[in-house]
Design a protein that fits this description.
Blueprint lengths: L9 E3 L11 H9 L7 E3 L2 E5 H10 L4 H4 L3
């Protein structure tokens, strides 16, 4: 799979690239519910690693060609 996020980069809330998976409020809801991609909480700052975002995106992938087979 081609990576959606730069694996060597850290993303913080407010980075426009994070809008790809959800707005600030959606990410906050997921963190509160222990859902969504892995993150670091350093003080009040929330940091997402690009490699964690890519892993989460891959795990969320749906392939209709495979899903319909029984």
């Amino acid at each position: 799979m081609a990576d959606l996020f730069d694996t060597n980069r850290n993303y913080v809330l407010g980075d426009p690239e994070l809008e790809l998976i959800g707005d600030r409020e959606k990410l906050a809801q997921w963190r509160h519910k222990n859902m969504g991609p892995a993150y670091y909480k350093l003080g009040r700052k929330v940091i997402y690693r690009g490699c964690d975002l890519n892993d989460w995106a891959e795990a969320s992938r749906v392939d209709p060609a495979v899903e319909g087979r029984d």
